[in-house]
């Protein structure tokens, strides 16, 4: 059994449990992004197994009629084996999503994988327009240039502040600097896009800024938050007519998931504790 501190952030160990969680969230007006837990596979067989699991999950979502999509991690579907294997599996998942009228997000991992991840996204989005979306991290100093490159790509862009502890040579490490970069990146997206903008943030200031920019530029957007974090705010935003998506991991690798999150950045432990305590 998943312990309480984990069950708050993980939608069960099985697909039926994840779909039950999705159904409950949908009743509150919140859509769900399902992520099968697993990452950093160096065995092609493991990457293929999770790819197959996502293909089946997309079929299950389509059959259920639930308001849900999926999100994959590059290192989960082959990046740690080769960029080519990653793109092969990524493309197969998006192709299935396109067949069943579903949607696929790709998470962003550490900065060493950014180029290969964006190359694959750009190529796949060209073949399957608006069936795929890519996460972008504002803490990286390169992100303004990446957004300029991707602004006309026919796929969604999820803007997050970034959770990986990258060196100061390539990333902003001060919170104020990250916040400033996030605001600038949001401004750019709303100025240049009228659709496909995803605000991945729990920060009320950034969510309010997105609302103001959407009204100013008459652009559509969605807000994405993690399962177990500010869920009252998720429901409140949905009740106000905002498109809200909850990122909900599931699967039996929940212990390694929490270990990696804490190891990546000590602030993640504090973040999880505050969420559990409702602060």
UniProtKB/TrEMBL annotation:
InterPro entries: FAD-linked_oxidoreductase-like, PRODH_bac_arc, Proline_DH_dom, Proline_oxidase. The keyword Mitochondrion does not apply. The keyword Lipid metabolism does not apply. It holds the Pfam family Pro_dh. Pathway: Amino-acid degradation; L-proline degradation into L-glutamate; L-glutamate from L-proline: step 1/2. Transmembrane segments: none annotated. It comes from the Archaea. Its cofactor is FAD. It comes from Halorubrum californiense DSM 19288. Residues 19-273 form the Proline dehydrogenase domain. It is an enzyme of class 1 (oxidoreductase). One of its GO terms (biological process) is L-proline catabolic process to L-glutamate. This is proline dehydrogenase. Keywords: FAD, Flavoprotein, Nucleotide-binding, Oxidoreductase, Proline metabolism. GO terms for molecular function: nucleotide binding; proline dehydrogenase activity. Its EC number is 1.5.5.2. It catalyses: L-proline + a quinone = (S)-1-pyrroline-5-carboxylate + a quinol + H(+). The lineage of its organism: Archaea, Methanobacteriati, Methanobacteriota, Stenosarchaea group, Halobacteria.
